[in-house]
TrEMBL record:
SUPFAM superfamilies: DOPA-like. InterPro entries: DOPA-like_sf, DOPA_dioxygen. Transmembrane segments: none annotated. This is DOPA 4,5-dioxygenase. Pfam families: DOPA_dioxygen. It comes from Coccomyxa viridis.
Length: 200
């Protein structure tokens, strides 16, 4: 299992962290480090510091067509909103994900809109996971997870590896926001992982 975790994060961990920090995108982007910092500095409560959310739509049948249709629906509804960003489609199990899935990110600004839209528009044959993107991903994918449709069993070892990596980077002097933003900003590590998973 440790090899599986190492394999999942190998693309993420071999990149130079400082170089990634320098390419975090426009300061005006809702996914920039500046946006993270502006929001979290104003929030005294831990539960209100969740700035970014992930949504994963899973096809237990590994049906890429139904996921693409759902992606088109999301794009039609939220395409002009800078607070919603689309990940790519992974057509096979990878990391914690047990089957084909589509991921997208959204900020807390549009949380109610995205959740209520997904609640009423999710195709019946998809299971949808919504979780906070923070430095406790094992907990986010389990105890703090919300599901629309039947919940699936996720492999938590890869996200436990992510949590360990975040803790290590923070111990080396980075802020939690710097580490998280490096994974979601344009050109960041998550974008690189998504490209690698899509090409697999």
């Amino acid at each position: 299992m440790e090899d599986e975790v190492d394999c999942f994060f190998s693309i993420l961990l071999d990149l130079d962290f400082q170089r990634q920090q320098a390419s975090m995108g426009s300061k005006d982007s809702p996914f920039s480090l500046e946006a993270y910092d502006r929001y979290t500095e104003k929030q005294p409560d831990v539960d209100r510091k969740v700035y970014l959310w992930h949504m994963h739509a899973y096809s237990p049948d590994n049906d890429g067509n139904v996921l693409r249709q759902f992606q088109d629906m999301i794009s039609a509804r939220f395409g002009a909103d800078a607070n919603v960003r689309y990940g790519n489609l992974a057509l096979k199990a990878a990391g914690p994900h047990p089957c084909a899935q589509l991921e997208f990110d959204f900020t807390r600004t549009v949380f109610a809109d995205v959740i209520s839209w997904a609640m009423f528009n999710r195709p019946d044959n998809l299971s949808v996971l919504i979780h906070p993107f923070d430095d406790h991903q094992a907990e986010a994918h389990s105890a703090r997870a919300m599901w629309l449709g039947p919940p699936l069993d996720l492999k938590l070892e890869p996200v436990q590896g992510f949590d360990s990596m975040v803790a290590r980077k923070v111990a080396e002097g980075a802020t939690v926001n710097e580490v998280l933003c490096a994974f979601v900003s344009p050109g960041g590590r998550l974008a690189n992982r998504r490209a690698a998973v899509a090409g697999a």
